[in-house]
From TrEMBL:
Cofactor: Mg(2+); Mn(2+)
EC number, UniProt record: 3.1.11.2
Binding residue positions for Mg(2+): N25, E53, D170, N172, D274, H275
This protein's name: Exodeoxyribonuclease III
Domain Endonuclease/exonuclease/phosphatase residues, every copy: 23-275
Organism this protein belongs to: Streptomyces broussonetiae
One GO term of the biological process aspect: DNA repair
Keywords from the named record: Hydrolase, Magnesium, Manganese, Metal-binding
A Pfam family per the record: Exo_endo_phos
Length: 284
């Protein structure tokens, strides 16, 4: 299907334009490219693809991943080699791209990149994973504090400009009990700590952060749908997963979401990451 003049795909002449956005933690893009990511990218109908945990410099990526035909790509690697890294693939050339969110500590960590498209800002986020009782958890807490301030400022700027926002990515927090299978066994583990869940609740509080968890809004009464499963044991086969990959959007855009789903592989052997793509269709 040909693109519209603004880079979005017209569904038919009687309907508004559709924007399809997919987010996935690739768990190392070079490895994912050898296991099925390239083929997935070739067949996806997404207009925007947000990647996390790329773990590579652009020059280390094969050409069909670094700059595939039909896509505009921005890679934001981490200063620490082989760690983190986020990317954005867009069918339309962005009007503006920003790496980082104005943080002296985190702008070089390969954890955030955003792009302005017509009427909407799309961002790819890789929030630190943390580990209780270590410096990694302290880093996560500092990141969350700075990032919430950025989210509020971003929402305010977008509202002033008549724009919407969606921040996609691996947020490394399961918000509610329905967001992970074994919640009872993880109440003291990073990713499901009370203080982390409270922070994410603040992001989603209309009186605070003012954002919406789009997939949960579309699926309010179900467990999951999970987007990450450990490679250990039979977690994937038993669907013992976590929902930590989110589309977090301003209310105006969230209200236009008509479909949200996890692109779960049919079998364990067909996975090209320990995460699965999370896709949302917005009827603009």
């Amino acid at each position: 299907m040909s693109d519209g003049a603004d880079g979005l795909r017209p569904v038919c002449r009687y309907r508004a334009l559709v924007l399809t956005v997919t987010s996935v933690n690739v768990n190392g893009l070079r490895a994912a490219a050898k296991k099925g990511f390239v083929e997935w990218l070739a067949r996806t109908e997404a207009d925007v693809v947000c990647l996390q945990e790329v773990r590579a410099e652009p020059h280390q990526l094969p050409e069909e991943v670094r700059q595939p035909d039909g896509w505009y790509v921005v890679h934001a690697p981490a200063a620490a080699k082989g760690r983190a890294g986020v990317s954005l693939y867009t069918r339309r050339e962005p009007d503006r791209v920003r790496v980082g969110f104005g943080s002296a500590e985190f702008d070089g960590s390969g954890r955030y990149v955003e792009a302005d498209l017509p009427g909407v800002t799309v961002a790819s986020l890789y929030l630190p994973s943390g580990e209780v009782g270590t410096a990694r958890q302290d880093e996560k807490v500092r990141f969350m504090g700075e990032f919430l301030a950025h989210l509020k400022a971003l929402r305010a700027r977008a509202a002033a400009d008549g724009r919407e926002v969606v921040v996609c990515g691996d947020w490394n927090i399961a918000h509610q009990q329905t967001d992970l299978k074994n919640w009872r066994g993880n109440t003291r583990n990073s990713g499901f700590l009370p203080e982390e869940r409270e922070w994410l609740g603040g992001v989603l509080d209309p009186a605070d952060g003012g954002y919406v968890d789009v997939v949960r809004a579309l699926h309010p009464d179900v467990e999951g749908p999970y987007s990450w499963w450990s490679y250990r044991g039979r977690a994937f086969d038993n669907d013992s997963g976590w929902r930590i990959d989110y589309h977090v959007a301003t209310p105006g855009l969230a209200g236009k979401a008509v479909k949200g789903f996890v692109e779960r592989a049919a079998t364990h052997a067909e996975r090209w990451s320990d995460h699965a793509p999370v896709t949302v269709v917005y009827d603009l």
